[in-house]
Fold this protein.
Amino acid sequence: MPLQTRITKLLGIQHPIVMGGMTGVGTPELAAAVSNAGGLGIIAIHNAGSPDNGRDWIRKLKSLTTKPFGVNLTILPTMGTPPPYDDYARVIIEEGVKIVETAGSSPKKWIKLFSDAGLITIHKCVTIRHALSAERYGVDIISLDGFECAGHPGEEDIGNFVLQAKGAKVLSRPFVCSGGVGDGKQIAAALALGADGVNCGTRFCATTECNWPASFKQRMLEANETDTVLMLRRLKNTARVFRNKVAQEVEEIESTMGDAFSFPDVAHLVMGTRGREAERNNDADGGIWTAGQVVGLIDSIPSCQQLMDQLVKEAEDTIVGRLSALVAPSSSL
């Protein structure tokens, strides 16, 4: 009994489950595994390192799956020369990608560019006002990210129980619930709140196909829902990361320095190159790695297919079994 929603029909996928673009782990192998399992896998093209390498990644992904997939283009402020975003976008279009996910800065330019080229567009938003702006720009699907999410949850601190319900009230385009989703009961809840599906990130990192080393996955198994850190809050650039030794050091420096805190005080701790080195060294305490509060729900490291089957079955059982059983027939007098 498949779960059919507006996004399953629009994207041509079997299940309303998306693996959003993720730095580091958003590889062709993981994206293909999610797509082959019936969801929508997405690669983060900046992970490839250059537009030419991004082209190779797209072609590799096509060789690994015949199912729908997407490519993420994340536009973020940088301290130095920004990545060649226009070149990445050109590669996405030239390679015939059908679905693109944007995140970060205003998507106005990118939604028009990709829509004019015939792509289905998804944009990540952490507030309703940003989602409404994306709708005005012509986006096809909103990824509505609650405060529970990994990475950048914004500065509004709105949890999904309110955010998704408000989205159902005011949004006209399909939207997916993103942030904190790790089991089928939550998928059922997201659908009940009005979402057309879910976006899972951290949960797909705890699978056999994810390129994170064993030490990272073991720490997720051992974690609870309080084992994340919100760093860089004083800079209005909040990031939710796993609570390891480096994250705790950043947290302590930020707290101790107070209003005098600035990014250079922790740059050596949070730089991406340090995080990638920690991954290569299988050192879960060697650098920063993002994770959402959903780590508290992770108790296994399945394959993507096993995880997808588990998520869908639990969602269906919750909807058909537990929820329907709660509705008692009206008694006739």
